[in-house]
Model the fold of this input.
Amino acid sequence: MVGGGPGAFIGPVHRMAAELDGHIRLVAGAFSRDDAKNNAAGRAWGVADDRIYADYSQMITAERAREEGAELVAVVTPNHLHFEVSAAALRAGLHVMSDKPATLDLAEARALAKAVAASGKLYGLTYTYTGYPMVREAREMVRRGDLGKIRKIVVEYTQGWLSKPVERDGDKQAGWRADPALAGVGGCIGDIGVHAFNIAEFVGGALVERLCADLASVVPGRILDDDCNILLRFAGGARGVLIASQISAGARNGLRLSVHGEIGGLTWSHERHTELTVDWLDAPSQVLHAGSAYLSAPARAGSRLPTGHPEGFIEAFANLYTDMADAIAAGRSDAGLVPGIADGVRGMAFVETAVAANGQGWVDLESAA
Amino acid sequence: MVGGGPGAFIGPVHRMAAELDGHIRLVAGAFSRDDAKNNAAGRAWGVADDRIYADYSQMITAERAREEGAELVAVVTPNHLHFEVSAAALRAGLHVMSDKPATLDLAEARALAKAVAASGKLYGLTYTYTGYPMVREAREMVRRGDLGKIRKIVVEYTQGWLSKPVERDGDKQAGWRADPALAGVGGCIGDIGVHAFNIAEFVGGALVERLCADLASVVPGRILDDDCNILLRFAGGARGVLIASQISAGARNGLRLSVHGEIGGLTWSHERHTELTVDWLDAPSQVLHAGSAYLSAPARAGSRLPTGHPEGFIEAFANLYTDMADAIAAGRSDAGLVPGIADGVRGMAFVETAVAANGQGWVDLESAA
Amino acid sequence: MVGGGPGAFIGPVHRMAAELDGHIRLVAGAFSRDDAKNNAAGRAWGVADDRIYADYSQMITAERAREEGAELVAVVTPNHLHFEVSAAALRAGLHVMSDKPATLDLAEARALAKAVAASGKLYGLTYTYTGYPMVREAREMVRRGDLGKIRKIVVEYTQGWLSKPVERDGDKQAGWRADPALAGVGGCIGDIGVHAFNIAEFVGGALVERLCADLASVVPGRILDDDCNILLRFAGGARGVLIASQISAGARNGLRLSVHGEIGGLTWSHERHTELTVDWLDAPSQVLHAGSAYLSAPARAGSRLPTGHPEGFIEAFANLYTDMADAIAAGRSDAGLVPGIADGVRGMAFVETAVAANGQGWVDLESAA
Amino acid sequence: MVGGGPGAFIGPVHRMAAELDGHIRLVAGAFSRDDAKNNAAGRAWGVADDRIYADYSQMITAERAREEGAELVAVVTPNHLHFEVSAAALRAGLHVMSDKPATLDLAEARALAKAVAASGKLYGLTYTYTGYPMVREAREMVRRGDLGKIRKIVVEYTQGWLSKPVERDGDKQAGWRADPALAGVGGCIGDIGVHAFNIAEFVGGALVERLCADLASVVPGRILDDDCNILLRFAGGARGVLIASQISAGARNGLRLSVHGEIGGLTWSHERHTELTVDWLDAPSQVLHAGSAYLSAPARAGSRLPTGHPEGFIEAFANLYTDMADAIAAGRSDAGLVPGIADGVRGMAFVETAVAANGQGWVDLESAA
Done:
């Protein structure tokens, strides 16, 4: 991994996501230019000391030289470094998984495309939303023609966390995003507008051919745009609207997509990401749920749990394990909020009492002893 | 880990959850009594061959003998083995994290309580729902007295997957749950009713003192209950209702809790687990969102992402990484649905075009080249 | 109309509802025992002075004597008068529409049943919820067998407005409901529990045969119950739970019904009354919307507006008309929030400007002149 | 009333709305140019035969000549007649309530503005959505500055009912809307776009100064627009987007408004019209409910029912009354789905049985007798 040290938001997400299914392990990294932070990050994640590198060049060279060196590099730096790190990794014969955007600007992106082609290696870009099961289901519905010819696509991605000039108050996440040298020419449009753009094309199945943009820097003193409203025309004739904002105070992370065809329309919302709502001209609306057997193969493949278990289930479980690990590491004699054997006894008392007294009216539930 | 081999639902969840935060690694296991399945599970999860054991006794003995042997045992077998595995691990000086219920019956649970006390080791029980940030927030609200004295608690946990006698059609998950020898005296009540019971006490802050139960075996031929309706009386005077069902056809996994006090009430629903709704006698309703800065410490500690990023975010990310890992492992030249450099170029073209033409009306977006 | 004078909640609802479709007019009434209030109510509703009566007996006698006297009596008094007013009206040959409950107690109800039979007149009881289009659709679905044999019915009706002893602070609505002489033996159960009971049988299609009740008077000093939890067994074998509460602080008027059969389940909630959600064992969930062409005849007949126009549409419209009527009555030169011709000009300017400049980029919208 | 005869959608809404609060009566009309339809409409609504007029001129003349003639004219004709009817009524000294848009085009609208001013009479325009309590609350919040300076306004009004060329299949509603001679230059924009425009200015509190429009006639052969996407700039600097569509197949009548200021944002949706959601930068979200005591005076004034009683309550009630009226008119001996005395007896049996057996376990509920 390159980047992702303390204070980063997306680095830890890459680490957790990469390791979740047990096929990938974080084994090496150059997490921060600051030595202390670099070591802290590496050790927290179980990386051996000799594979915590001072910079990405050292990392690439050393890992290529190891017998069982890393095969895939996760690029999670600020935008301005995406190109050079990705290109170097590819040249060295490593696969790349890069956070978005691919590069700082279009020229770099084109150069990187050539580098990918020349390398024969895989290059992946984490437009996260393409990974949601119900986004993949939506794409399948459009591809199969379920909705008829697509006529209209509206995508809205609203946040409010840049409503104040927090980049001038030391917010690291806001800081680099507001600096053209690190973020590129796009502010909100480059940070979240591209996600909206990508998902519109990914699901809608047609490329944007023309656009009419109204970008604004709403917060006084901000250089880059923090609010975007864009009219779209797609190949094939569909019209669309893309709204992205980081100054919609109160909004959290509201990505919402609707695609309408001749006979029906679908809506997907990030805050309800396990559901896909489909409305029809002449029939009841449908709600498709992640994890269901009736979904398409790409959607089914994206769920680790039965339907009705929102993906937060794993994290809730992980909270218990992490509390337990903390208690073990600290040598504590209890694990805080983690239910313990007293809760276990109590549960069994509940079950046995209820079964024994079934249909017989009121009985006492003795407190566990 | 003991149990959790191929076909299990909860074993993989334990593995992913335990490893998520990087503090715990799965290093050893006895995953299945079937040799082939045991090895398959261990290898899929990166366990070294010499730490894949034929049974839990071997595992405990061998791991205790290693210099850096396992410290914590995850018990994910069917219910009837929970006691013996947990007790053996504790006796050997290992911490235990057990899937619920703690044991097959109350007598075993009481015996295990003594074993825990004697061992001086930690024992955790994965009543999963206690790990959700907004469940912890709800508990804090009740403890702080925000709602006034608690008067009523309603908890409903409805599933529909046992609406047909699938245990007689080879469904492994349904099979052991329907067999009293493996599951204990409780069917639905032991499988999900205890979760509902536990969350009601965990959040409501008072113990159940009396109950009046109506349990039924609705599907013909089923021995254990598959539907439960129970009236509750809590210490302190609150009344309550617990509804649990596995034959509510169409229901997915609908756990829903409401707690009402003298001046307000809260509602939490598993299908919207990042939200906590609070209604007041004389003021606007509130919706609290996971990850927000205004939450209590226990709730904040349970989120890995900023507000508005539902926890499925990690899994969506992981889908991209897993597709990438699959492509690498298979030596494929593309990574399927994972966005690639062409998408990266396209995104940059979108940003640059929109910024350059901002406010100038319609322009073409050239297809990437 | 008998009852419904100033301070009443349900009287005005009866008047508006009765007149809504233009088939019924309020022409006479005995609205209050207090002369001034009686006259005020009658005049506000356009009743001729000579048809505002001092009591219901006078009203019945006088109206029967008129050539075109009233045909239908709406009984909207407190519960303890329902019987005598209804019986008197029926004896006089008038049809009756009574607010619920039918009478103060069961003995009266049985006597009234005889009176209805003897009279040959129609007797209707406003269990309001049976009038909702989607409740009628739900009933049809059960009757048609869409869900298979019914197994479970859960109905919940929660309010919070009696969380404090408001009946002792002069709240007229709370006052008579808390007084056994006026309300009967049931408090919450008689006020809203019967609605829940009625809708469960109306939709579920089977009668309750057995019950197990836990009723409480939660607010200190209150005589009648204000919280009810009841286990139910229906003819045919379905089990059920009925929860009714008026001390669930923060709850507004949350009536919610779920009915599960062998292959699917339906859920209807009063706060989303235009929707009916249906979940299936093996297929996407469905949401049926009031006013849709695909609904059953009884459901279609209950909508006055196209789908997507929630019934509040009429009231929103009525707010404009009422503001207008107020302005006319007061001789004011403007009608407050009612949009006027300036808004009309502005709207036309918007339309013409947008149409004229379609596709041509930015243009000014001149302020109306 | 002028217009609104059989087949019209909005005429009956005007009639019900005008009469709802008992301050206005429909006493006269020219409902249709077709004699039979004209008489049918008038009689169905209880208008005396001698006040059903052949055309609006006759109506105005005759009503002005009556001692207690009509004071207010409701104009519910197709758009092309709005001007002449409204102007004639005003000239004759009558108040006017007109359906929107005010006139066929801008020139007429300006002429009508002069006519209103000259008449000294009131002129109201039914931009319906301004009548919703929670829209009025939203307006108050913006006016009070609760959200800080307004930065962004997004309004979306989507329908799908014109997804096919139904105007060529005899759909009367679609027919006149698709004909420029009757509807004016705007199709979708004139029909629903102006509602969206009006509500954006009504709530947002600032006028649109510039716009950039993308209108399309998506259905082949249609002359007027059926889909609109418009970028907006408001006085004071706020940006906005207006989306209106009648070809979003599956959409019902989805009007949705969001307004974001410096410190918070509000969202109102027609399909959940009793709720107003407010999101804050640093505090829990709020949901305000219609009918609550904490609302502003304009919002409180717009509710006829306690909170939690969606306005459909009146219509549900009305369904019972109408079924009753039908049964009376037809001389039937039962009133169909209207609950009757058997239901009344049953309800009382339920209450008495539950109260008598409270806390005593299971008892039989005898079927009513």
About this structure: Chain A touches chain C through 15 residues (CB under 8 Å). The first strand of chain A starts at residue 2 and ends at 3.
